[in-house]
Fold this protein.
Amino acid sequence: MAWNKIFGVFVAGLLLSIVIQPSLGETESVKAEVVEYNGYAMEKRTMRLSMDKIREIIDAKGKEKIDLLEKYGLISDDLDNLNRTSFAFFGNILHMPFILTSFCKINAVYVLGGDYRIGLPITGIKKLFGSSMLSYDFANAAWGTLGVVEVKGLLRSHTMIMVPSFMTNIGFVGVHIHVPMLLDIYHGYSAFTFAIGLGMKSVTFNVLGFFVIGIIIGMAIMGMMQLQQPQQPQ
């Protein structure tokens, strides 16, 4: 997986250098939109990020990326401590370049793309009470020139590095960080996640996954042995 990470960082750096470098002299920071999904409600806020911080977040790996998001105030300190029971119903099929899973933890980074949200703003009630807590997103989608998606279920973990890539989440709970036309970061839990693209994919089984597979294989072997035993004449 080391060469996968090197490839992802190289592509991200190359794309950012092409698009960002000409504008550094004009704008040293960009506006980022942070959306926190808390079950049946969501909270939006905006903040400015320097280009150096954006590059640092993109280049970071694994837990280091989450630490940087907390350091720069993009996600709360206790968000990463959410503990949800998750179970993956669908997943790897012959290592094809897509992910189809449910009730999982997701970390995703999309570079040079955009996002789309399908929700229920309840505009009239929202204006009456003056609260953003009445907004709710049924689903959200993201696409980009480069996408790095990590999905962790109870049985399996999937990692994909794709150029280009598309992803959609249904029932997302967590934080979505959006820098227009440049960067989209998702960190949280999803009831249903689908991602597809051209690139590399790895699948690893968790300890519980190996345990369940062992039980299934053991039961299958016992069933075959019982079928092969000659029946006693009555």
Q: What stands out?
A: The mean pLDDT is 70.
